[in-house]
Amino acid sequence: MKWKSTAAHLVVIGACMLGCAPKPSLPETLRAIEKFDIVIRNGRIIDGSGQPAFASSIIIQADTIAYIGQLDSTSTATLEIDANGKVVAPGFIDAHAHGDPIKTPQFYNFLAQGVTTICLGQDGSSDSKGEFGAWQASVDSVRPALNIAPFTGHGSLRMEIETPFEEELSEADMAMMTTELDHQLRLGSFGLTMGLEYVPGRYSGEKELQALAKIVGSYQGVLMAHIRNEDNDKLEASLDEFLSLGEWAPVHVSHLKSVYGEGTKRALEITSILTKYESLGYKVSADVYPYMASFTGIGIVFPDWAIPPANFNAVKKARRGELEEFLRNKIAQRNGSAATLFGTPPYAGKTLADLEKELGKPFEDILIDDIGPRGASAAYFVMDDSLQMALMTSDYVVVSSDGSPGMRHPRGYGSFGKMIETYTVKGDYFTLEQVVHKMSGQTAEIIGLKDRGLLKVGYKADVAIFDPANVKVKADFQHPHHLTEGVDFVLVNGKLARNNGEFVEERTGSLLRRE
């Protein structure tokens, strides 16, 4: 595993770099400035590149990092932050997030973890609904508290055509989709996301996906996908289908997982598939969140023939026995009724097993008569810790939350904090340099952010300052909306978003455009 190194070796490197870091002198252009905007002093700089930490100070002017190096006491600033004993890192970048920057622009759940940029429009669903320019203007006017990297949703494109639920699309429908995709990419969308397990993306075929991939590649955009099927026995075929699109554009697997797969050996088999496509010259990557439960609509457990465009009421009448048997087998395969925890009213916080006791009937009847394939979302405890963390340590993989401010799952409030607290400070999966790289610089490179993700002169001043020992995740499945503690200062575009553990009312994020 490339990330691994002995503790003694890391201590030697860290001590050398902290003591022997380069000491650039203040450039002439800055010497003439009487008072800087922001100075961060005495920090342990982890710059997001994966290189060892070093002791230094940082000058920020307007929204940009102007200097990294040694400063004497004569250099003053309007705002001075003493980072003694703390890590100074790039603001973290969430490769796969959810939320509405117009309705809920605060995004405190992300800021509390040091996240300063999130990628929205995931799983094939984007909010613009064919009015991307107007949506961009609305987000600009609201100004969210952090940066938004928007993607175009394949499913959203499909829902705008005449026959969104057809497998074979007409030339006219394909032309509508390709024209709108081209339009959004020209306006700055970072690429195309797919939800190939969801309606309507599940009806798309090779010809359609290749046509869209070619357009994304022509703009140097990125393809992201919730693949066709994440079940362990369907994983290879689903990865092959998506990764083959790397012939035309970079391919990124969203929330890579194996449902009911087990062990590190299986993880290595999975990453070998990514290696196979990388060997063809494709740009291949993935993201993982550090929780062993997924979260999505309950329709994931229903058969294809019981979800749209099928009429569910008609299916209930005509194929009731078959549907009951399917659901019994599916839930058993997914670790039983106790492994499905509902996250939406009226059953939020209860498992399917709880409902069996409460309602006094089998879970398959509850799913059919009380909930239906579109009646709830839930967390599903279907993943193996050793397998998922082996995936996380892969060089292909960066960190995501797949969470939002309102989702009833702790991943939206704890993924980045958990990477620091559980898997770096308490565990031995990563060094701080490695985990920060996975949460910043590596992600920026994948999605095409050219001036974020690193602490580097000329880059935007998105910064997180924290003592790693103090980072504590407070969210769990019973209290999924408790904020992570311990990230003391967060700067977004050179302005404080979190000041000594308190949120700042002014929002200074931006809607980013792919260059």
Question: What does this entry show, briefly?
Answer:
The chain is built from 16 helices and 21 strands.
Task: Give a verbal description of the structure.
By secondary structure, this protein is α/β, with parallel strands linked by helices. Among the domains are: 1-151 and 400-515, Roll (Urease, subunit C, domain 1); 300-381, no CATH class. Helix content is 33%, strand content 19%. It has 16 helices and 21 strands. The protein has helices at residues 7-20, 28-31, 108-111, 132-142, 154-159, 171-186, 206-218, 235-243, 264-278, 312-333, 352-359, 363-371, 385-392, 411-425, 432-439, 441-447; strands at residues 36-45, 54-61, 64-69, 77-82, 87-90, 92-94, 115-120, 147-150, 152-153, 191-195, 222-226, 251-253, 284-288, 293-297, 340-342, 377-381, 397-399, 463-466, 487-492, 495-499, 502-503. Strands 1, 2, 3, 4, 5, 18, 19, 20 and 21 form a nine-stranded mixed beta sheet that branches. A six-stranded parallel beta sheet has the order 9-10-11-12-13-17, with helices on both faces. The chain has a three-stranded parallel beta sheet with strand order 6-7-8, covered by helices on one side. A hairpin with an 8-residue loop joins strand 1 (36-45) and strand 2 (54-61). Helix 9 (264-278) runs parallel beside helix 13. It is globular, with a radius of gyration of 24 Å. The two termini are 34 Å apart. Residues 1-17 have low confidence and may be disordered.
Question: Layout of helices and strands, plus pairs?
Answer:
Blueprint (H helix, E strand, L loop, with lengths): L6 H14 L7 H4 L4 E10 L8 E8 L2 E6 L7 E6 L4 E4 L1 E3 L13 H4 L3 E6 L11 H11 L4 E4 L1 E2 H6 L11 H16 L4 E5 L10 H13 L3 E5 L8 H9 L7 E3 L10 H15 L5 E5 L4 E5 L14 H22 L6 E3 L9 H8 L3 H9 L5 E5 L3 H8 L4 E3 L11 H15 L6 H8 L1 H7 L15 E4 L20 E6 L2 E5 L2 E2 L12
Parallel strand pairs: 1-4, 1-5, 6-7, 7-8, 9-10, 10-11, 11-12, 12-13, 13-17
Antiparallel strand pairs: 1-2, 2-3, 5-18, 14-16, 15-16, 18-19, 19-20, 20-21
